[in-house]
Every structure is written in C-alpha cells, then in structure tokens.
Amino acid sequence: MKFDFSNEAFFDNHTHLLFQDKLEVTEAEFVLNYYHGIRDEAKPDGTMRPSQTAIDHMSHQGVILTLVNLMAQRFDIEPTLKSVVAFRNQNTKTPQALRDYTEMLFKDQNVWGSMLDAGNPMGDPKTFLPGKVFRLYQYETPYLEFLKTEDKFDVILEKLFACIRKAAAEGFNGLKGHIAELCGLAVREVSEKEAQAALPKAKQGDPEAFNTVYYAMFSHLLELCQEVKIPLHLHTGTTGMKQWTAAYSMDPILLAPYLKNPRYFKTKIFLLHGSFPFTRHAAIMAYNFPNIYLDLSWALPWQSLLLPRILEDVLSVAPHDKVFCGTGQHDYTETVWLASKITKSCLANVMENLVSQNLLSQAQAAKSASMILHQNGRRFYEEGKE
After folding, report:
1. Most CB within 10 Å of its CB: which of 30, 95, 123, 140?
2. Nearest 10 degrees: CA dihedral of 58, 102, 7, 67?
3. Is 203 inside a domain boundary?
4. Are the C-beta atoms of residues 195 and 153 closer than 8 Å to each other?
5. What is the reported pLDDT for 24?
6. Residue 325 in contact with residue 13, Cβ under 8 Å?
7. 115 lies in some domain
8. Does residue 281 fall inside a structural domain?
9. What are the φ and ψ backbone dihedral angles of 82, each rounded to 5 degrees?
10. pLDDT by residue (tens digit) across 222-232?
C-alpha cells in the first residue's frame, strides 16, 4: 500500500519570527541559521560567535544537504547550496517580494497555521506568518525582571501572574519556558518559605538559590495554567547547546517524580523539540501522563536523515492524538517548507511499512498521519476540544 500525504495540511506547533526586511543573504548566513552549537570564537567586542571552522562544516550537515536536494527538485535549480541561496535572493529583492516568497512556500506545503514563539506584543506586524497564527507568551521575560527588582517572593508571583492573566485575556494560546536550560528538569517541590530565604542569593546569581526560587514559582505556575486554561510549552532536549551543556539535565523523564503529584494532573504540558536525543523518554512521558503532549519541532527538520526512526519511536509509544509536528523555524522561511515536505514523505514510508507488516490497517495509518500532520493542532488550538 502506497501513501501520499503531499496534499495534506500541515500545522507548525513551534516557530519563531521570520525575516521581513533582510532581502539578500550569503551562503554562510544561510547555513548558520541551522547551527545551534557552541560559539567558539570571540568578536572584537568580546561576545562569542561561531568560528569559520564551524561555518565550513555547516554546509555538510544533513539538514542542509536535504534542503538543497529537495529545493533543487521542486524549483528546478542546480542541486548546490549556491543555487539555493541564489534562488532565495532572486525571489526576495523587496520586502513585498520576500512576503510573497514566504507565502508561496507556505502554500506549496499547505501550511494552515503556526504556533509562534516570540516576545512581540499581540498584533505586532512583525509577527506576520501566512495562515492562522497562534501565540506563545514568554513568561520568563517578566519573571527574570521581577526577580531583579522585587525582594519578596509573593510579590514576584503576584506581578508575574498578573502578566500571564493579561496575556491569556489578550489571546495568547500558551506559555513558553526554558526551565531545562535555566535549572534542569529534575524539579523538586519548594515551599514559599524556602523560596523567600533563597531569594537574596538568587538575585545575586547563585545557581542553587536561583533554582530554588524558580522551582517554587514553577509549581504555582502549573496551577495557574489550570486556572486560566492555557497549556505550558517547555523547551526540552539538546536542540542547541550554546552555553547550556548540561545535556542530561534536559531529559524530560527527570520530570516524572515531580509531575506524579496530583496537584499538576490537569496542567497540559508540551515537551518541545522531541526532547532530542531523549525522544523515546519524551514518548514514554506522553504515554504515562495524560496531560503531557509531544512536539517534534527541531527534530523536524534538523534530524531529517533520522526522521523515519524518530517517528517509529514516537508512534510506537505515545498516543497518536498527542503528537504534534513543528519546525523550530526562525528567520528563514525555507525551514517550514522543508519540515512539512520531509514529514509527509517520511510518514508515508513509515506508515507503508507498518501496514505491510499488518501492524496497522490502511485506514488506521491514514488517520494517524492526518492527526499528526494537522488534525491534532486543529482540535487542540482551533476547536478547543482537548
């Protein structure tokens, strides 16, 4: 049985802002968009950047090779990075042309909607994306500011939660946080008394005290999500180390002892980025906890050459109605085009294999693929039926 999901809609469960006025890019800029690693060279001002050695390697990574191959086939250009970048620059000579190019790529892959992770206020024209746009509110921005300015833990909570309630009322569809990078996912219960005692040192940058205060806030945050009926999207896995190199602290299975507390059972939590390379652990969490969902952004398309096995891992454990596609796209719109295209292709191959082994029926495979590509997103965000 052959499947063809190329005309299916695609929902991007995690994306970022796109360029709107960068009309020409170099090959180095283009490939560095797909680099999330260590900055190994100092600029004149002392800040760090990827070295030329890092840049030279980037054109040989799987995601770039896949992008070049598929764009060359689709748009009848030479299968080289130079030709792909030239094709982009030819189609983005004015801001309107860049917008048209973006809309063309979204339409080509039938991308019906996106969940945008950006700090911009609701309605900001810089948040343009074709299709329906949902929004994540970055709660750590006000939290870290209040941590600097306030001397009482309860005041920090009060001010932070006022911001979150306001964001929910404005139409934000979820919260976004980086607890894995900031503190690690081995979350522990912390009382308000302990948090207040740790606050002075936390304000001074003491790591242990910072974690204590954050974990105390986090428990209250999970309960607030239940109150305002908004899901929490958590960055997990090692999608990019940069300054965060404590890889094993980003494994989502570390959350299990903490989240088994009934206090948090009604909080809907998305594990972002497939928790790569801990994808099986993320799938196990989605299986064991009814309130946990699995997002595959960044695994799509960065792990393009591994995607069939990632999908097999996820589909073998996690309920199929809890798996969401996504991109982790930022700046360059080719990312959503690539993620959608390879997901549809790899899903077709995976489902064909499962049907050929009589593990799924043809109807079951087609239904699961549609759920993962777009129906889960529609049900959860557009229809509010979750």
Report:
1. 30
2. -10
3. yes
4. yes
5. 96
6. yes
7. yes
8. yes
9. -55, -45
10. 999 999 999 99
The packing angle between helices 334-356 and 307-317, to 10°, is 60
Whole-angstrom Cα distance, residue 22 to residue 44? 24
Between 183-192, 233-242, 329-338, 373-382, the lowest mean confidence (pLDDT) is in: 233-242
Peptide bond connecting 301 to the previous residue in cis, omega within 30 degrees of 0 = yes
SS (H, E, C) 149-187: HCCCHHHHHHHHHHHHHHHHHHCCCEEEECHHHHCCCCC
Could you tell me the residue range of the domain that residue 255 belongs to? Answer: 10-23+92-382
CATH number of the domain where residue 232 is located:
3.20.20.140
- Residue 306's pLDDT band (cuts 50, 70, 90): very high
Q: What is the per-residue pLDDT across 63-106, written as a single tens digit (0 to 9) for each?
A: 999 999 999 999 999 999 999 999 999 999 999 999 999 999 99
Amino acid present at 47? T
Burial class (CB in 10 A: 0-12, 13-18, 19+), 283: buried
Q: Does position 268 have pLDDT exceeding 80, yes or no?
A: yes
Adjacent-strand bridge partners of 298: 301
d(CA 212, CA 34): 34
- Return the closest-CA partner of residue 333 out of 98, 122, 40: 98
In this prediction, residue 186 carries a pLDDT of 96
Write the CB contacts of 212 (distance below 8 Å, at least 6 apart in sequence): 190, 194, 195, 198, 202
Q: Domain tally for the chain?
A: 1
Asked whether residue 77 is domain-assigned, the answer is no
Distance CA 232, CA 264 (A): 12
* Whole-angstrom distance, CA of residue 340 vs CA of residue 161: 36
Q: State the pLDDT at residue 200.
A: 98
Average predicted confidence (pLDDT) for the chain: 95
